[in-house]
Design goal:
The protein is about 50% helix and about 20% strand. It is an alpha+beta fold.
Length: about 400
């Protein structure tokens, strides 16, 4: 009997049914798209933020290492528990040198580093590490060094020396001189503009520090810090430490790296890590807010459509009450109609939302995404939620109809 009533109701009011279906489907589609890309946006934004600088600094410990780290230990960084979260790293070896070019002499810092080194790790995929990976925001006029005697020079130091791309200069450290050809001038807006950057092996030879580095900058994908992440690991229980260690906090990733680098001390660069965490948290909050807003707008549209439908069906409702239908039976009929529509709207909304998420991802991030399996039940639940929320006011109005008043006109 109930099925027959629902069938006749759909066939007699196709326009009203379509409006409710469209409202639910659009709400489910927007919710699916926003939730589908929220995780992708966080991941992509984290990758984008990695281009603004490393977030972990690895230095020699005060006790071990003699003030240096060993270059031979660097491949171990890509073998830690969070190795897939480490997007790149580069070592540095610093020394004070006297530069001479074109008759001018200036004291400054010579920095040995990797620019784009192919790193082979046993049992792991090879990767390219160096400044070009962790600091793509560096503006280099000219080209990057490729030979052992090529270097890039900071814009400020180049101006003081009066040198330019293609010119030659000498770097002298304790009576040892190395000849360099400037292939690029780097502009960063920071202290790097006062330095000369050359291949690590060349600077190691110049400083007589073969196989040694002064520090390592590591760029890693991390999750925003919360109260638990900020706890001191030394005060944690065994279970708490395991949870902390297996969560990609910047502190736990730093701990991973420190464990494989002998004589090292790893610490987060909090200016960057804190800013990233705050931004990603706000971004997730915005996506959730927009999802809720879309569902509320959809529920309002459903409520408006059902209100109009209830006004048209007031005589039908009054007649059902007159022949003995109680509040539960009337509620079952109208909620049944709405829930059937919402089921269809949820399925269609999921399909539309999945495509919308793909379009947004390709347009904004130039990449495709794979929708998580939990999005489908989420879309159905969202559709049901919208349908029920939008039905409350119209159903209440229907239950307040007086048969005598309506039937007598």
């Amino acid at each position: 009997m109930l099925f027959r009533i629902l069938k006749k109701s759909f066939l007699k009011r196709p326009k009203a049914v379509f409006l409710v279906f469209l409202s639910i489907a659009m709400g489910a589609a927007v919710a699916t798209a926003f939730l589908g890309i929220s995780g992708e946006i966080s991941h992509k934004m984290a990758l984008e933020l990695r281009s603004y600088g490393a977030n972990i600094l690895l230095e020699p410990s005060a006790v071990e290492g003699g003030g240096f780290l060993r270059e031979e230990d660097l491949p171990k960084i890509k073998t830690v528990f969070w190795k897939y979260n480490i997007t790149g790293f580069t070592p540095y070896l610093f020394g004070v040198a006297e530069f001479s070019a074109g008759g001018k002499k200036e004291r400054g810092i010579v920095s040995g580093t990797w620019f784009a080194k192919q790193l082979d790790v046993p049992g792991e995929d090879s990767s390219t590490q160096g400044i070009k990976g962790i600091a793509p925001w560096w503006e280099v006029q000219g080209s990057w060094p490729t030979g052992p005697d090529e270097a890039i020079i900071g814009a400020t130091l180049a101006k003081r020396l009066g040198t330019a791309v293609g010119k030659e200069l000498d770097a002298t450290v304790r009576g040892r001189t190395r000849h360099f050809r400037v292939v690029g001038i780097v502009t960063t807006g920071g202290f790097e503009e006062e330095q000369l950057f050359a291949p690590l092996v060349t600077v190691q030879e110049l400083l007589l520090q073969q196989g040694k580095v002064s520090r390592v900058l590591v760029s890693a994908l991390t999750v925003p810090m919360d109260a638990f992440g900020k706890k001191d690991p030394a005060t944690m229980t065994k279970d708490e430490f395991e949870k902390w260690y297996c969560t990609a906090y910047v502190t736990s990733v730093a701990k991973n790296v420190e464990e494989v680098m002998a004589g090292s001390r790893a610490k987060p660069i909090w200016q960057i890590a804190s800013a990233e965490g705050a931004l990603l948290t706000k971004l997730n909050s915005v996506m959730l807010f927009l999802t809720i807003l879309a569902l509320c707008a959809s529920a309002t549209a459903v409520s408006t459509s059902l209100m109009a439908s209830m006004a048209e069906r007031s005589r039908e409702i009054a007649l059902m009450k007159a022949v003995g239908a109680d509040r539960f039976q009337i509620s079952a009929i109208f909620l049944g109609e709405t829930l059937i529509i919402s089921l269809a709207g949820g399925v269609v909304g999921y399909l539309l939302g999945d495509q919308l998420a793909q379009i947004i991802s390709r347009t904004v991030f130039d990449s495709s995404i794979v929708s998580p399996i939990w999005l489908f039940p989420t879309a159905i639940i969202s559709a049901f939620t919208v349908a029920i929320a939008g039905s409350i006011a119209p159903l209440r109005r229907a239950l307040l109809i007086e048969p005598v008043t309506v039937l007598k006109g």
